[in-house]
Amino acid sequence: MIELVAGTTDTSAAARIMTTVRRWIVIEPEAIEHSRATIPMFRDWLALLDGDPVGAGSCSLNLGMEEDTAAFAVACVLDQVRGRGVGTALYGQLSTHARSLGKSELMTWGYEDDAGGVAFAERHGFVVVTRKPALRLVLDDCPRPTVDLPEDVVITTLAETPELVQGVWETASEAMPDIPYYTVPMSAGPLEEFAARSFAGPRFIPEATFVAVREGEVLGYAQLTWMSRAAGIADHAMLAVRRAWRGRGIAKALKARQIMWALDNGLTELRTGNDERNASARAVNANFAYTPLPDQVGYRGPLLASESRRSATGRSRVIPEHGRNEHPA
Question: Nearest CA to 321 among 6, 3, 2?
Answer without folding.
Answer: 6
